[in-house]
Structures are given as C-alpha cells and as structure tokens.
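Page 37, continued from 36.
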C-alpha cells in the first residue's frame, strides 16, 4: 500500500527544472609548441601552391603538412625571427617579411635581402609581387626589390605605416593601404584612393571583393566595403551581431563569405549577418591576429599566445555541461512533435533540449541512469533506466519487477508490428501489452543482457545479447553463436538495413547476415575502432560508432561485407571525443544524426561529412638519398630545381645505384588517409601497389636513364598530378663505348698476336716436321735405292752377264750389260730428286723387267700397259716406288710356280677421276703359299716393301693428300683358291704440285 502511495506521489510531483543554456560549442584542434609549432604568438597565416600551411610567429616561421611542422629560424638561415607576412611567387618560392629584411625559401634553402636604410629595422607588413618587382610595405615606408637588390623610393610613401598591398581593379595597378589612407599605385604614380571620414579611424587590413571593390578592416569603424572606384563606402556598425568596432584582418572564402579577426575573437559574415566565435562557444584564446581558409575548406586561426587553431567543423555541434547538460554521457536521443529533443544521460537523468534551452526533467525515478528511449506509435515515450521502465503519456509511470519486469535494469526497447513494447533487460526479454508487463517463458529465449533489438520487414525481431544473436519469428527463438559466423558470443548492437539484412556490432568488428550465416570483418587497424557501439542507417549510409570515432560507408546490396570501404571520422573532423556511447545514435525528423560520446552529445548533418572526392592532396618530392646516405647537392656542380632542391640532369656513377626517394602528400584535413603510388620509368612497367609509406626504395639499378614518378590521393579519392624526376645511372667504365672500343682493339691485337704467334709456331713446327720428313724421305729413298740395287740383284745380274760371256753370246751379254748399266744410272739419278716423271719411272720398270725376264726367260712373261691419256712427261711420281712390288711378284709369286705354267705379270698405268692408278697383277702362287715358303733370304724384299709403305705414309703426312696403297692381296677364283695377287697404288694427278 505504501509503494502505491509513493508511485502516486511521484506522478503528482513530477516537474521540470529549467537550466539556462549557453550557446552551442565549437570544437578546435590546437597546435602549439608540443605539436612542433615554433612559437605560440602567431601573427600571419599562408597556404602555398603545394598545400603547405605556413604560420609566421615572433619566433620564426613553421611549415605544416598536416602531420608535422618544419621550422625556420635564424638557425636555419632567417635574418629575422619576427614574421609578419608571407606570400609566394609564380616559381613556388615562399617570400617572408621580417624586421628589416626579406627571406626567400625554396628547395635550394633560405636566401635573404636586407632592406636599405632607414628600413633596416622596420617591420615588414605587406608584400606584393608585380612582374619582376617585389613591392615591400613596412611600418616606415615603401620599397621594392629587383634582381635581388632592395631600393627605397624617394617619392613614394616615405615614412608611411603600410598595412597591405593588393592588385587594383585596373591592369598594372595596385592598392596600397597605409594606417591612415588607401592609395592607388600605377607606374610609380601615387594617387589617394580613399580616406576615412573619421580622423580616429585606423586601417589594419584589406582584401579584394568579388565585385572589384575592397573590404577594409579598421579600428573604430569595424568593417568597411569600398566600391571599385573608391567613391562609395559602406560600414556595418549597425549590425548588432558584430560586437566590436576593431577588426584586425579580413579574408574571403570561395563563396564570397568573409572571416574577420579581432582581439576579442573572430566572425563570419555571409553578407547578411555576423556569426561570432569567442569564449562563449569554445574559443579559449580570443586575441586573433589572422585567419585562413585553406583549399580544403578548413578555417585556421592565428592566436597571439595560444598557438595555431583549426575549427574542426562549423556544421558539427556539440552539447556538454557548458551548454546546460548535467552530465556529458548522453545514452539516447528522441525528438518530439514540438521540435524538442529528449536526452537520456548515464549519470544525470533525463534532459530536454528545446531551441537554446536545456531542461533537466524530474521523472521521479530513484536512479538517474537512463540507458535507452523509445517513441511508440501512440505517441508515448518510454525510457529504460537502472530503476525500471519509465513511460510518459499525460504523466509519468514507472514499471519495475513488481509490475512484471524480469529485471529493473532496462537496456533496450522496441515496438513490434502488433504495438507491443519489447523490453530488453539484464536478465532477458519481456514485453508490455495493454499496460501489463509479461515475461517470455519460451524455449531458447535470451536471458543475459539484452543490449539491442531491431525489427525487420517481415516483423521478425532480432536481438543482440551477451550470449549471441537471437531471432524471434512465429513464436520461436533461433539462437546464433560463433558457429554461425559471429567473431565472439557477446554482441553490443543490432540494426536492419534497407535490404532487410541484420548488421551486428561486437567488440571484434562488424557482422552482417547473408541469409544463412553471419559474415564478420574488422573495420579499423586500431583495436578500439573495432568495438562497435552503435549502428545507424541514414540516407543510404551506415554509421558505426566505435571507441575510435565514427566509421561510415554507403550501403550497397553486396552480400560480402568485406567489399565495403569505410571512411573514418575523429577529433580532426570535429568530434568532441572519439569514444561513442552504446546504442546512442538517433536520426531525427530532419535527417540529422545525433549520437552520444564520453565528452558530450554530437549533432551532425550527415550530408556534410563526406570526403571531398575532387580534392587531391598536394604532392612534394623533397629528398633523394643515395646508398642510404643524405647528399650535399651543391657538390655535384649541377643546376638545382627551385622547388625540390634536387639537381637537374643528375647522372650517377654505377655504384651509386641504391636510391631512396622521399615525398609527402600534403593534406591538412586528413593527413592519415593519404596514400601513394609510384613507378620508375625505365624499370617498372606499371604503377607499384598503393601504399601509405611516403618513400620509395630501389636497389641495384642497372645502368640506364630513369624517371621516377609519384602521385598521391586521399584514400579512395582522385589522384594528384604526378611529380616526375629524371636521372641516370652511368655504366661502369668497362661497359662504356670508349672502353669497349679499347677492349676490342686490345683483344683484337692480342688475338692477332696469338694467331700470328700460333701460326708462326705451327709454321715452324711444320717446317721442322717437313724437314724431318724430307730427311726421313731421303733416308727411305736411299734405302729404296739400296733396296733396288741390293747385293743379290747385282750379284745375280753380274752372274747373268758372266753366263752370257761364257756362252760366247756377245749380243745377249751386251744387251744385258747395257740395260743393267742404264738401270744403275737411272737409280743413281733418282736419288737426287724425290720425284721423277712417269715416263722415266715406266722406263726404269721396263729395264728392270727385261733384266729379270732375260734371267728367267722360261719362267714368266710381262706386259706394261700405259693409258694414252696419261702425260708421261707432266705427271710426276715418287721415284723407285713401284719396283719393290714388281720384285715381290716375281720372286714370291711367279718363280715358285711348279705346275709348268708360265707366269704372267701385268703392269697397268691409267687415269681414273683425276687419279693416276697403277695396278700390278700376277698369276703367282698367292700370298698364303708365299708366306709358307718364305725364308730369311727373302728379307730384302720384305724390307723394300716396308720402306715403300713408310715412304707412302710420309708422303701423306707431308702433303695432306691421299696416296693410297691397296694390297698386295690375293685374287680368288670361284672356288676360293688363289689365282694370283694384285697391288694397286692411287695418287693425285697433280702430285708434283704438292712438293
């Protein structure tokens, strides 16, 4: 009874407690000494053509590429550390105005020009490049620099405090703003263009307007718009939103909007109203000296003492305790019909945001921790707390375990197609129907921490719980666990996409239902980026809240979640904190995305945070190392490129072939997403794979000409124009033309000498061999002669002569003696020459045969046949070569015949295919029987045959020509019996020409 009275009391005394709200807060990224900025008092800002951001301070100048600063001070070559103005010429050289000097910075380093007296200590406030002339405006007058020489004009604005110089509306004219007046300078003629009406007005800055006029930043009159002819001036002091009359600088955006700085913050002017940025909406340091809108649309703020700031996002708004929240951790958001927003917080109860007012709502709940909220189809609001379920209709009503909940800790809410309110608690699921809470006692129902629920198009309910994913369909629960594709059992959130697929967030990445199982993937390389706290579908995109910021991708009908590419949004994009809250995302009736973080509530128009696909990062090639060693390029004696600082036409030695190129893609907004692609023309056939590494290494390059090409992009965006650098690697001296020619000459000479020497050696050796062969030939011929005139033949011849004398046969004796004498004379004559004519040799053989026939008249007959085609005088043959074969036929073939048959010996000389052929044919006893009868007395004949064979071998070696001896060999009859022998000798017809 007492509990009922308490509930009635709570419902009766519920009231609203109003808290005044501050303006919406803007988030700034701070860059100071800790981040590498050279000094915290920043006076001027500039962005060069490569995308680098330059910040001029009282302690030097810093160049920022989105990741790190490179600082220039007196140590790096500046003459003055106080930097007040920065510009760039058409060649890409950055020009810096200091105190009494101008510094030029490019790839070659720092160069300085000292201003003439009396400007040697004057602060430079303005720079303007007109053709080859650099105009310099100082606090003590105007000068110009031509050809590296500074000249003080004797007539132009001597001692004037010059603030700015801009081009005028006419050609070759420029406007010069001093502290007191505006002048037009053309062809060194100075004309007053505009003077303020109030003598107390001071000018600080000037910028061109889109219509040809100029905007003037003043002290005393605030902002002034001046027509192009200088006749009409308009000020904006009547605008109540411009809360200061002192404007220190003015810059323009592409759309024509203005940004104005002051000592009390800065403003944006869209042509109708001023929007102020100061301490009330998040600007901690209000002394702003300069503003810059970079080419990526970021606003940079130069503060005096607070370093460099970047406005994270003008469209992304945060709500924190500064705006009236009692607690920063917002867990859920709902909008109502009155345009208000109900904010559930982790530790400060319920709030309502309406316009600029945040109200803390008293609900009567004992515990202020509110986890989730729901607006049902009847217009009722439901809030899940740690104390139970709150319902707001005409009043507040609390449902707890006493009213049927299975647990008071309500973590998630859902309305099904039947209008039932599903309640996810720490102990399972129940539903609310007709004001009564009912528990689901169904088999397989989830029972542990129901963190999220979603309804698909078929009316099925998907549940993310501590022990997996559950699907309720047709009164039955289906359980999905790790075997179904989940990376872990514990799930955090769940949502249904436009294609009716369930997406599930876990601590180990994202999952998507493919129809029969879950496919999972990681969305980040950082662990915290894979803790998925919420999933929200909005205008064709899916937004994932993680512990490392937001991830977004366009929802496609691809079944594989691995084919999705996610964009990342973090503090650099305007988030107040990277850590998002569980199931805290909500899309309101205007399509805006709300979500809670650990540091406050974020409101993000979802159509404003897409990557600028058309914007490519700036690209700068700044260094080349050779063999892992930094180079002093001045020592190469080559002209250097002003932008890169690298030598032009670089030719490296063959051992300088390990190269590392260093480059950087300049992206101020998304430096971590820059990726590169490069190739080396002359080696690579195509681009190398995309890489985030800002260097490229090539080792052991062959000698030839190369061009290194690199390009950059934001992840998935368009490529920048490629940067190219050409160089060459020279061939080693041993591969160069002159050395190859020298090698050819030397090798040719050496080969010539070797060939000559070898030929000489061969010739000498051959001469020696020929000499030896001729000596051996002479010896063999002498032996042949001796063989031809052996003692047995001479003895027998003399006996035959004696025989004829004794018989008183003077005619036979004289004839025999005459032939014998002729034979002896011919043999002696042949000993003087290796060769003899064929006629002489035939005559010798005929004499020999006649002598032998006279001795053995009744033993054999002979014939000598000579082919008429043979020239007996021209053809030469080795002397005494044939006689031993005739002697062998007579003595071993014919004389031993015992059958009474007269022996026949035929000698045949004939010409056959360019060869002189000699055949000796007998009908003697044959070789086999001759060998059986042979005695030691026959050694001289065998010796003659051996000598003849040796002569033939020597003739072959000496001449290289064929002289062929065939036989002696038997002539066989048809019964296989020997019927004589044959010897054949073949020699060249031109045999005499070989000697």
């Amino acid at each position: 009874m007492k509990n009922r009275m308490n509930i009635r009391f709570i419902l009766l005394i519920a009231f609203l407690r109003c808290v005044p709200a501050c303006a919406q807060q803007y988030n700034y990224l701070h860059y100071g000494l800790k981040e590498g900025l050279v000094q915290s008092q920043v006076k001027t800002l500039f962005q060069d053509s490569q995308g680098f951001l330059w910040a001029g301070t009282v302690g030097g100048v810093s160049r920022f590429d989105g990741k790190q600063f490179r600082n220039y001070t007196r140590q790096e070559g500046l003459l003055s550390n106080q930097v007040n103005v920065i510009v760039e010429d058409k060649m890409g050289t950055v020009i810096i105005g200091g105190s009494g000097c101008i510094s030029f910075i490019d790839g070659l380093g720092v160069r300085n020009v000292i201003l003439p007296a009396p400007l040697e200590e004057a602060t430079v406030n303005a720079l303007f490049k007109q053709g080859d002339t650099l105009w310099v405006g100082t606090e003590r007058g105007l000068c110009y620099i031509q050809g590296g020489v500074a000249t003080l004009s004797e007539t132009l604005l001597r001692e004037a405090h010059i603030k700015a110089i801009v081009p005028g509306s006419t050609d070759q004219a420029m406007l010069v703003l001093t502290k007191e007046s505006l002048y037009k300078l053309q062809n060194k003629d100075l004309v007053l263009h505009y003077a303020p009406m109030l003598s107390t007005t001071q000018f600080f800055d000037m910028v061109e307007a889109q219509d040809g006029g100029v905007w003037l930043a003043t002290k005393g009159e605030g902002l002034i718009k001046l027509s192009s002819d200088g006749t009409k001036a308009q000020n904006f002091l009547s605008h109540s939103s411009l809360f200061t009359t002192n404007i220190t600088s003015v810059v323009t955006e592409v759309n024509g909007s203005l940004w104005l700085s002051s000592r009390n913050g800065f403003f944006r002017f869209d042509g109708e109203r001023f929007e102020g940025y100061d301490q009330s909406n998040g600007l901690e340091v209000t002394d702003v000296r300069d503003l810059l809108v970079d080419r990526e649309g970021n606003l940079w703020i130069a503060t005096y003492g607070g370093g460099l700031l970047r406005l994270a996002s003008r469209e992304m708004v945060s709500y924190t305790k500064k705006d009236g929240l009692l607690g920063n951790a917002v867990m859920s958001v709902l909008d109502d019909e009155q345009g208000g927003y109900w904010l559930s917080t982790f530790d400060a109860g319920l709030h309502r945001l309406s316009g600029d007012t945040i109200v803390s709502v008293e609900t009567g709940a004992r515990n202020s921790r509110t986890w989730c909220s729901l607006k049902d189809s009847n217009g009722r609001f439901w809030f899940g707390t740690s104390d139970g379920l709150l319902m707001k209709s005409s009043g507040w009503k609390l449902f707890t375990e006493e009213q049927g909940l299975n647990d008071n800790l309500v973590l998630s809410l859902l309305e099904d197609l039947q209008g039932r309110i599903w309640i996810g608690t720490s102990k399972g699921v129940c539903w609310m129907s007709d004001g009564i809470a009912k528990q689901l006692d169904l088999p397989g129902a989830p029972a542990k921490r129901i963190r999220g629920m979603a309804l698909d198009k078929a009316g099925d309910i998907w549940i993310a719980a501590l022990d997996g994913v559950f699907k309720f369909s047709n009164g039955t629960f289906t359980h999905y666990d790790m075997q179904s594709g989940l990376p872990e059992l514990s799930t955090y959130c769940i949502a249904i996409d436009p294609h009716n697929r369930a997406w599930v967030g876990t601590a180990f990445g994202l999952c998507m239902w493919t129809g029969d199982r879950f496919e999972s993937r990681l969305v980040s390389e950082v662990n915290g980026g894979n803790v998925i706290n919420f999933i929200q579908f909005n205008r064709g995109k899916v937004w994932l809240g993680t512990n490392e910021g937001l991830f977004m991708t366009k929802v496609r009908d691809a079944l594989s979640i691995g084919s999705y590419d996610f964009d990342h949004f973090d503090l650099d994009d305007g988030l107040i904190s990277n850590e998002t809250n569980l199931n805290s995302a909500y899309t309101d009736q205007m399509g805006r995305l709300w979500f809670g973080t650990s540091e406050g509530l974020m409101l993000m128009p979802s159509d404003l945070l897409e990557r600028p696909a058309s914007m490519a990062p700036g690209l700068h090639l700044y260094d080349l190392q050779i063999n892992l060693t930094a180079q002093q390029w001045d020592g190469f004696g080559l002209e250097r490129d002003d932008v890169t600082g690298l030598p032009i036409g670089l030719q490296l030695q063959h051992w300088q072939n390990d190269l590392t190129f260093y480059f950087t893609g300049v992206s101020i907004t998304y430096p971590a997403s820059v990726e590169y692609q490069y190739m080396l023309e002359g080696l690579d056939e195509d681009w190398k794979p995309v890489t985030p590494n800002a260097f490229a290494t090539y080792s052991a390059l062959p000698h030839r000409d190369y061009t290194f090409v690199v390009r950059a992009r934001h992840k998935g965006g368009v490529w920048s124009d490629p940067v190219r650098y050409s160089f060459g690697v020279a061939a080693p001296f041993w591969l160069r033309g002159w050395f190859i020619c020298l090698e050819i000459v030397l090798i040719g000479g050496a080969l010539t000498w070797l060939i000559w020497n070898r030929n000489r050696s061969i010739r000498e050796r051959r001469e020696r061999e020929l000499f030896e062969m001729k000596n051996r030939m002479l010896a063999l011929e002498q032996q042949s002669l001796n063989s031809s005139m052996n003692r047995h033949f001479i003895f027998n011849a003399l006996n035959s002569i004696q025989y004829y004398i004794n018989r008183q046969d003077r005619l036979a004796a004289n004839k025999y003696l005459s032939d014998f004498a002729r034979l002896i004379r011919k043999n002696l004559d042949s000993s003087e020459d290796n060769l003899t004519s064929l006629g002489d040799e035939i005559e010798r053989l005929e004499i020999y045969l006649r002598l032998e026939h006279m001795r053995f008249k009744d033993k054999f007959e002979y014939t000598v046949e000579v082919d008429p085609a043979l020239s007996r005088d021209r053809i030469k043959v080795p002397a005494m070569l044939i006689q031993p074969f005739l002697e062998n036929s007579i003595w071993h073939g014919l004389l031993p015949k015992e059958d009474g048959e007269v022996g026949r010996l035929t000698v045949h000389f004939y010409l056959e295919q360019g060869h002189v052929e000699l055949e000796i044919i007998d009908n003697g006893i044959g070789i086999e029987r001759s060998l059986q009868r042979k005695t030691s007395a026959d050694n001289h004949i065998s010796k003659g045959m051996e000598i003849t064979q040796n002569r033939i071998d020597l003739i072959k070696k000496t001449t290289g020509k064929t002289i062929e001896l065939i036989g002696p060999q038997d002539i066989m009859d048809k019964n296989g019996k020997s019927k004589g022998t044959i010897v054949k000798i073949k020699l060249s017809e031109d045999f005499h020409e070989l000697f």
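The CA atoms of residues 640 and 647 lie 4 Å apart. Flag for discussion at group meeting. Residues 1-22 have pLDDT under 50 and may be disordered.
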